[in-house]
Amino acid sequence: PYTPSVSLTYAMNEALKMVMEEGLENRVARHHKAAKASVAAAKALGLELFADEKVSSATVTAVKMPEGVTDAEFRGTTRDKYGVELAGGQDHLKGNIFRIGHMGNISYKELVQTFAAIGMTAFFLFLNLGCPPKLNFGWLVDFFKILLHRVLIDF
Fold first, then answer.
1. Which ranges of 23-107 does DSSP label H, i.e. alpha helix?
2. 38, 78 in Cβ contact below 8 A?
3. Which H or E run includes 122?
4. The whole model's pTM is what?
5. Which of 7, 110, 133, 141 is 20 to 30 Å from 152 at the Cα level?
6. Which residues of the chain carry a pLDDT beneath 50?
7. How many Cβ atoms from other residues are within 10 Å of residue 17's Cβ?
């Protein structure tokens, strides 16, 4: 005999209620829209996607680390300065990519915060390090056009 994890059972029941309230098809569609928004925002910032868009995931978007900055500098800045946690690459991709999760109860506001933090981090790291910018810093207008008009209205 053992004591079951009652709190985990309650948490699972609550999570399933949330899925049922939203509707499974709606939830899956929202994940696809979040993936589309993430891909569009990464491109608007001039970042390079790791995976080919045709086979990209609806649950996470992997982005190649911008040249000239380290993983610790980039992800550390988004976390410490902007409060946005980006997942790093694993195994041979460690230090070469960062990942943005968009599965679960993610909102468009969180995606906007995430990409604003990514854009500002890239801009200021290149500015502070004196690296020649390889990103499209006309990203701000494109970023908000894409996210607020084309993608988020349907989110």
1. 24-44, 71-82
2. no
3. helix 108-129
4. 0.78
5. 133
6. none
7. 10
